[in-house]
Fold SGNH hydrolase-type esterase domain-containing protein.
Amino acid sequence: LRLLCYGDSITVGTWSGGDPAPYSDALQETLAQEYGTHVQTIMYAFPAWRAISSAEGIYTHNLGLANILNFRVMSLAPIDMLVLLLGTNDIKFNADYLPVHQALATHHFVAYDELVRHSIAMEVPPSSFQATKPLQANNAALLKERQMTMVDDRITFFEWPFPYENFHNSELWSDGFHPTDIGYDIIGQSLAPVIWGVLEGTQRVFCYGDAWTSGKTGGTDALHPYAPELENLLRGDSSTGRNAVVGHLGFGERGALELAESSRGGASRYGLANQLAGAPEMDVVILWAGAYDLRSGDNGYQRVFRAIRAMNDIALYRGAKRTIIIGLPPPESEDRPLLREAVNDRLETYAAAKSETTYFRFPFNQYTPSARVWGPGGH
């Protein structure tokens, strides 16, 4: 599970005691010790950063949220959850709550567009400025009300875990604004059950494979993975209370054998074994590989079958409750069906023998023209 902590100096962990003490450290530790969940936190945070200016540069600034998320996706390390804390400096310098709320909402919507599956909206923390200036206190209160209206099955509101007590609480530094190391630990420890609550009530699906999983499309660098649409279908009507997150990791120009080799423990940080190690237990792992072997004309169907079978065994060994193997897609032309048929027949037989845990599926069975498949490469 990968969390992006994005925000200002409070996300950095700034305080007077020396080295920064980011809340993400305590968050990681608490999730591991109390809930048995290992997460990777990635932090992009900047002192004096304001929500409004951040939203204005969200696409154009090198450190804008959209650019950061796009970079993480292109580097094959997509973000699962955003933890957003901005607005403290806007409120401090008397910004009106409404444009601050609009800026924060923009960040959450961009995260959704960039395939982040859930985000945490953190309350602007109380401070000495709000305690002494009615305008700031009023804007902070109205902003909190607005933030709470954004809550849905993709956004969770996080209420600040400790009050401002006129410089007398150990959680706040003497500037009345930044937490102490104790305060940062409390933030991380309080955030952990919120994140765990999101995970605990969620059906988790992970799609792993080649370019068909990454969503490679014809003629452009654009990716259109099937995972987000699958997630939408699994969620269905949000009024039912169902929740699902569908992650994906796909590699272009990689055959099934190469994917299987990289999937073994320790072989590659992006291998299937490492992707599942330490993550919350997956309800379903979907495997789709072999298309590159088909494209290259490799007729070693036994090698391809064994490679896909090995990945399926790894997924089950790493705790997946169910696996789905998607069969090889149609070849680029009708004169190369042998590998596809031979591999799919063996995969179907293998899945039938493991019917309690493994299913074999393919969404369309025949070679079809460009309505479903882009010609070059068969994507």
In short: The two ends are 28 Å apart (CA to CA). The beta strands are 2-7, 40-45, 81-85, 118-122, 155-158, 203-210, 244-251, 284-288, 322-326, 358-361. DSSP finds 16 helices and ten strands in the chain.
